[in-house]
Amino acid sequence: MIVAFNKPSYRWPAVAIVFFVLLASVTLTVVDAKQPVIGKGDITSELPTSVQMQFMRPDQLEAAAREFPVVYVPFGLIEWHGKHLPLGNDALKAHGILVKTAEHFGGVVYPPVYFHNGFDQKMFVPVLTELFERLKKTGFRVIIGVSGHNVRGQIDMINQALKPVTADGSVAGVGLWEITLSKGPESGSDHAAKWETSNIMFLYPDLVDMSTLGTGPLAPNMKPPDGIGGLDPRKHASPEAGKRNIELAAEAIGKKAGELIKSLPKDKRSFNLKSIRPGYWWLI
What is the pLDDT of residue 251? Predict the structure, then answer.
């Protein structure tokens, strides 16, 4: 009787071990599901509202944040980008890339921020810090600020604003240019030349008017009257180049989001709010 009684008692720990190994495998599978999934030609120019915060209902926002607690904040400005591109080019391309990132990797995209490092930083950085704090209080664990305006001051501004928000180690964050992590032969940036024109040709073709550039020589190095810096967009820009650039940028940012989540302590990697509803949350 003693032997018969003891056998199950020794088998139970083994069953428990198998259970927890399987549970861990499932958990790892969920994390790995957010690993690189964008192949060449995978993306479309459609920007789904299902990952854009301003279009989401509370239940959609909470579900997305619970699945992958990352928020992406696009930055840009209103600036001359040749006669042929929209003035909001920088924010539009950053926003488009981040929507593709969220669509394929998870997370949520905050509406574009059009303030920039040309503003008084003593006044503006605290405003950004407040925004990031509110995103943190909404339960996000990773905050990624992405600037389509490729000047060093933009990244310094974002990272300076993030510093007090990430100081306690409960969230991670970083400021990037849209091509910081993907720059190469098929991914780059410029000023209203090959790359930026290609991006907008792919994302917003109706906003591009190449006829405004005429057929004569363009002034070099962003000089008047054209204000273009880079390869002649009339010869080098195409929707196909924009699509590939955006694919690579979105994939690289998505990978970075996963790395930042994994950089946090294990007990700090989950959505950090009981619920997105009155009593727990109201606004950002």
Answer: 98
